[in-house]
Amino acid sequence: MTTEANDKGRETVIRVENLSKVFGRRTRQALEMRRSGESKAEVEKETGATIGVYDAKFEVYQGEIFVIIGLSGSGKSTLLRLVNRLIDPTEGKVLIDDENLSEMSMKKVRDLRRKKMGMVFQHFGLLPNRTVLSNIAFGLEVQGTPVTERNKRGMEALKMVGLDGQENKQITELSGGMKQRVGLARALATEQEILLMDEPFSALDPLIRRDMQNLFLDIQGEIQRTVIFVTHDLDEALRLGHRVAIMKDGEIVQVGDPEEILTNPASEYVERFIEDVDYAKVRHVEAVMVEPKEVAYESEGPHVVLRRMRQAGLSSIFVVDGERRLVGLCEVEDVARLSERGENSLEESVDRSPKSVLRDTPLREVLPMFVESNAPVAVVGKQGRLKGIVVRGSLIAGLTTGSEESWESDGKSDVGSGGVVGREAVSTNYAAQEFDEEGNRT
Amino acid sequence: MMLAQAEFIPRMPLDDWIESAVAFVTDTFGGLFNVIEFAVNVLVQSLNFVMTTPPALVMIAIFAVLAYFLSGWRTALFTLVGLFFMISIDLWDAAMVTIALVIASTIVALSIGIPIGILAAQYRGVETVVRPVLDFMQTMPAFVYLIPAILVFGLGGVPALIATVVFAMPPAVRLTLLGIQQVPGETVEAAQAFGSTPWQTLVKVELPQAFKTIMAGVNQVIMLAFSMVVIAALIGAQGLGTEVVTGLTQLDVGTGFVGGIGIVVMAIILDRLTRGFGDSNAPGMVKGG
Q: What pLDDT sits at residue A36?
């Protein structure tokens, strides 16, 4: 709802118009039938053709990450391959900087691929018989760049993805994550303005995937390529995408920024897609809570508490009693005021009704608690003891979906100002994870 | 006496047809066959010269070194012992002539078979045509190839080589095709996505990854060519096969067996030597590319 403004005035790099791809025979007929309103399944049964992509249209702006998301078989990889014509379209246009790719000779297409479009593959697509560096320099090699030049640029790309010193390794010696770094570096070395990524991190295990997403965001922050990113993972889509296109049965059912998708699902399918993810990964508070960095004891004075809060960089702190039962929450401003006045007790600054939840409270119910303020939510045990806290960042990052009111609240708050919810959430989350586990005096 | 079966089915003079087809081909392409005969002769003669001119000990040293680099010291040792054995049974010259013929046939078979395999991998149409032809070539008894070969080229080394090529070529085509088809689709897509021409894709991506499989094909071609040695001797090709044929026609058990053992020894040496081709563990193979 906020990104619309962002996109205005930006240059369109890729424009896809009414793009369709039918595999098999009787492709034209299949398209005609589909147009006349028959469903994909009916058409495929009658003609024996397979509709890979039907009537796709979207634009990708310069420097943005455009995510295409869908379940397997939804045509997202086909759509990506139509964009650089690894697959020839049955109908429709792909315009790259206003040049129609569908009408070009193969020679011109090759030229365009060399100069403008790089690609990263799900299973890396690396050449096992070559070293890391020679894989990275492959794109330059086919362009006919001289050896010294391409090795130099290859080394630069190698550094960018953090593979310094690995240039002479064999591909087979590398782990999955490292391989994909090579795949990424290969696409970076040629310095094309467009980057097509086909589920690049799907084959990696979750922790490595997260690392790679961060690495990619870091690099993208520097080089600002125009990216089309295909994934089946909603988490990933929300995290990386400036805008997200959802595909179903070969058709794009919704395009929007992550907020729009979550708050205004355009169809029942999108809604279900989002919900599926939610229920599939039933998440409770436990999954996102973190150790409180510091706590204050009821009996302590404002000076001590203020000092502790400053050292830990906290704007609010939970107050507990001698048995670590939750008493309330103090804001730093209030504590500071008491301290200035020379008071001896925290009493006056303690909010006696802090937001608190149990460990097994579903995240859905926690979200509305951040509507009014960003103050952390306490997680308490059965006896009322403080077990952990939920901060805004860790909550959002831990989410795969949200109810309407909660995501709207995000738009109002200071954190998600750019409308790039996923990304902001990531950085906040990482800050949250830096909390150490010291300071739990028991 | 054989009874004529099912007389209501019309009889087809297939033999006559083939005969006239061969006659037609011989007459029409006589000039072409002369060129082929000349080229093959040059190839066989020069290889013969290369193999037989140097002193035996020099050749043995070359073979042993080659064996070491292609396959390792075990094969080198076996090669050394095997070749000394060939001298001691007085079949050294025959062995070298046979090797020359095998190498010549292999060169011709590969230079036809590998390109056909590559084409078949690129174009579905070629594959559909090539596969049944290969089946035909491999299942047809090798003797049969001798007949048209003699008709066209007369007796001697040339028809022997042609028959050997026809018989030994299929694995070169098949394994080249297989090797290229087994190259992961994503690597080919990657090459295309970065703007490779079809030629660059073939040379930089497909062939290097298919190399091992193609080399397995080369090994098989050599072994099949070797298996034609005796048959080739029937139509006048010189070499180890001649010993066996002599043994057979004169019922000379000793000569026959000595020739046979010589063939076995040489076949094992060649097999071990060429099996190491695609193997990156061999001392002479640079790891990776």
A: 86
**Using a CB-CB distance cutoff of 8 angstroms, which residues of chain B are in contact with residue A81?**
189
The 3-state DSSP class for residue A319 equals strand
Distance from the Cα of B272 to chain A's closest Cα (Å) equals: 24
The Cα A193–Cα A360 span in angstroms is 47
Nearest chain B residue (CA) to A192? B194
Distance, in Å, from the CA atom of A120 to the CA atom of A228, rounded to the nearest integer, reads 10
Residue A421 pLDDT: 37
Q: What is the pLDDT of residues A159-204, one digit of tens each?
A: 888 888 888 989 988 888 889 999 999 998 988 889 999 999 988 8
Q: What is the pLDDT of residues A90-120, one digit of tens each?
A: 989 999 988 888 888 889 999 889 888 999 9
Record the pTM.
0.70
A79: left (phi over 0), alpha (psi -120 to 50) or beta: alpha
Question: CB of B244 within 8 A of CB of B233?
Answer: yes
For chain B of 289 residues, list the mean pLDDT of each consecutive stretch of 10: 74 87 83 86 89 89 90 89 92 91 93 95 91 88 83 84 90 94 92 92 93 92 89 86 90 90 91 74 47
A86 touches chain B (CB under 8 A): yes
Q: Is the pLDDT of residue A364 over 80?
A: no
Distance CA B100, CA B52 (A): 9
Facing residues of A284 across strands? A362
Question: Cα-Cα-Cα-Cα dihedral of B233, B235, B238, B241, to 10°?
Answer: 0
Q: Give, to the nearest 10 degrees, the angle between helix B207-227 and helix B170-181.
A: 160
Indicate yes or no: CB of A114 within 8 angstroms of CB of B194. yes
Q: How far is A93 from chain B (nearest CA, A)?
A: 18
Instruction: List, as one string, the DSSP characters of B125-140.
Output: HHHHHHHHHHHHHHHS
Residue of B194, B202, B215, B281 to mutate, interface with A, max A Cβ within 10 Å: B194
3-state SS assignment for residue A22:
strand
Please report where in the chains the tokens 């690495």 appear, as a residue: A215
Angle subtended by helix axes B30-52 and B92-122, to nearest 10: 130
Give the E-state strand segments of A217-315 in sequence order.
226-231, 243-248, 251-256, 295-297
Using the predicted structure, report yes or no on whether residue A339 has a pLDDT greater than 80.
yes
| CB burial of residue B127 (10 Å; 0-12, 13-18, 19+) | middle
Closest CB to A142 among B189, B195, B208: B195
Q: Dig out the tokens for A159 from the structure.
A: 């550094």
Phi, psi of B10, rounded to the nearest 5 degrees: -60, 140
Please name the helix (run of DSSP H) or strand (run of DSSP E) that holds residue A189, with its range, or none.
Answer: helix A176-189
8 Å CB contact of B194 and A139: yes
Q: Do A118 and B195 touch (CB under 8 A)?
A: no
- What residues in A contact B205, CB-CB < 8 Å? 127
Would the pLDDT of A392 be above 80? Answer: no
Inter-chain touch B289–A130, beta carbons under 8 Å: yes
CA A8 to chain centre: 22
Residue listed under structure tokens 């026959």: B256
